[in-house]
Amino acid sequence: MKLGKVKHIFIGIILTLSVSYSQAQSERQIFEFEFEGVTLNGVLNLPNDQEPKGLVHLVHGSGRTNAVEQEWYSDIRESIVKNGYATYMWDKMGCGKSGGTFDYNQSVYNSADEVIAAINTLKKQQIPGSESIGLYGGSRATWINPIVIGQYDEIKFWISVSGVDDKENWGYLLQQNLRIEGMAEDSIQLIYNQWVEGNRIYNSGGSFEAYMNATKALRTNPFRLRFTGETIGEVDQEEEKKRYYSGQKLFMKEKLDEETGLQIVVEDFDRILSNVNIPVLALFGEKDMNVDWKKTKALYEQIIAPKTDLTVKSFPSCNHNIIKCETGGFYEFQDNDIPYERCDGFLDAIEEWLKEID
């Protein structure tokens, strides 16, 4: 872990894959909006031959984007358009042709404000479909979208993909990927426990020396090193120490769950979910090794289902990005010659559900 960037890996790895879709159903238009004095660049897709029934905002997960130029989620957008809805997607600050500076640590609440700014701008400009808004988003966006729904009472529906609970997910990702790599369970538990203890030390204002002593196996683990891009011995310890204390000031503001030691990304998340009273489609890959999809599924069924129409579908042999896979491992596609192929039934599930809620 690069100590000055400890918080960065807690947010998770999110849906950024673009899968081609050969027969476009839509008219494509570039549309920009202002957020906090910065111009964000986005793309509208409108049905070719009809007035849109509504407009679906595609909300990004974690990390940088180049969504407009690279046509991210093109298959998803065209499936939505085919059912008579417009879509809108934009690049984050400092990404693509959007202005400003990219901030990995942008809070989910600020991201929700960004989504609302987009909604309000499209409404003000009377963009076709903007009078009836739906939300789509995966992973980190499933923290953002419930916040938007609670603050903006005109949202009509929500499509949640690879949803999360209230806590960070990197510990789950770490354990699952170490299992895929064949590590013994006692060794996995040792590394995981060191990661949790390192977080506690860092969050409580503990010293650099205490952190280093508590995380020896974690810091030399090959998967973690690959994930963070580090090489043992390449960083001067004094520089590492400076980054530790610099990053610690930020991380000490975060709240850790007393029982698990995990960072709570969204406080009072149960209450926020309980405010969701619109139709929800929740889609999961059963080989998601990034987030604990079964835990999130149970959370949705406990909190959302009693209050509104919740439809849940999961897809075997599908990873966090709802792409066909063997293991769901983080580096599976990078290390093997596997084609990116959307899971059977994923797009059909979206299309069928949109028809049902019309």
Q: What does this protein structure show overall?
A:
This protein has 358 residues and is of the alpha/beta class. The protein is built from 14 helices and 10 strands. The protein has helices spanning 67-70, 74-82, 108-124, 141-151, 170-180, 185-203, 208-214, 216-219, 222-228, 237-251, 269-274, 293-303, 332-335, 346-357; strands at 26-35, 38-47, 55-59, 86-90, 133-138, 155-161, 255-256, 263-264, 280-285, 310-315. The strands form 2 sheets. The protein has an 8-stranded mixed β-sheet with strand order 1-2-4-3-5-6-9-10, with helices on both faces. Strands 7-8 form a two-stranded antiparallel sheet. It is globular. The chain starts with 25 loop residues before the first strand and ends with a helix. 43% of the residues are buried.
Distance between the termini: 47 Å
Secondary structure: number of strands = 10
Structural class: alpha/beta
Shape: globular
CA gyration radius, whole angstroms:
21 Å
Which strand order spans the largest sheet, edge to edge or round the barrel? Answer: 1-2-4-3-5-6-9-10
* SSE order, one letter for each helix or strand: EEEHHEHEHEHHHHHHEEHEHEHH
Low-confidence stretches: 1-23
Give a brief outline of the structure:
With 358 residues, the chain is of the alpha/beta class. The chain has helices at 67-70, 74-82, 108-124, 141-151, 170-180, 185-203, 208-214, 216-219, 222-228, 237-251, 269-274, 293-303, 332-335, 346-357, and strands spanning 26-35, 38-47, 55-59, 86-90, 133-138, 155-161, 255-256, 263-264, 280-285, 310-315. The chain is globular.
